[in-house]
Inverse folding.
């Protein structure tokens, strides 16, 4: 299995959909905060997951994936969660920076597209609040009624790229958001995906 980087692969499709730079930043956020595990494991809510937070009912405990297979799964998962942009309406969608697109995709990857679309984060974006809407990310730090440090760190990083102001020379569609520094290969996740439980209102 390859990384889906061909002309019609999910990685290229994601770059076309949200922009190459936004795709890189979103991937860096997800890789950092999902963590990398080559062997299938139980995530914090008991589901089987592997690689960069990929969960699938077909997975079997102890099953192992190569790095290339994990990257291919990540490409597919990122493209699927880019559907959160379908919930951003005109004219707000045209004003999104690359950082805001990346934050939206990472946020949806963590809590699910449906919850992300229903969030005050997306509601405020659609209301034309732009950068100010990014503050809503800081509210989504709970799992099981408790504030989790891993979610706090993730939201801080997502909010940072979301609030970044592009250079004057760049259009809203081409921000200068910088990819997040990645942890060493094989490092444990700061927090596995909570499957939508990481929220407070």
């Amino acid at each position: 299995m390859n990384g889906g980087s061909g002309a019609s692969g999910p990685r290229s499709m994601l770059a076309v959909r949200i922009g190459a730079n936004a795709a890189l930043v979103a991937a860096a956020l997800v890789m950092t905060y999902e963590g990398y595990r080559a062997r299938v494991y139980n995530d914090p809510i008991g589901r089987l997951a592997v690689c960069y937070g990929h969960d699938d009912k077909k997975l079997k405990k102890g099953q192992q994936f190569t790095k290339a297979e994990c990257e291919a799964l990540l490409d597919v998962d990122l493209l699927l969660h880019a559907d959160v942009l379908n919930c951003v309406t005109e004219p707000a969608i045209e004003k999104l920076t690359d950082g805001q697109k990346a934050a939206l995709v990472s946020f949806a990857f963590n809590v699910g597209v449906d919850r992300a679309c229903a969030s005050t984060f997306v509601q405020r974006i659609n209301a034309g609040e732009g950068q100010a809407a990014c503050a809503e990310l800081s509210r989504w730090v709970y799992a099981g009624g408790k504030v989790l440090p891993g979610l706090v760190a993730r939201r801080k990083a997502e909010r940072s790229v979301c609030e970044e102001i592009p250079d004057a020379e760049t259009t809203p569609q081409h921000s200068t958001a910088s990819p997040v520094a990645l942890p060493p290969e094989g490092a444990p996740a700061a927090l596995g995906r909570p499957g939508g439980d990481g929220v407070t209102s």
Summary: The first helix runs from residue 10 to 18. DSSP finds eight helices and five strands in the chain. The longest strand covers residues 37-42. The two ends are 40 Å apart (CA to CA).
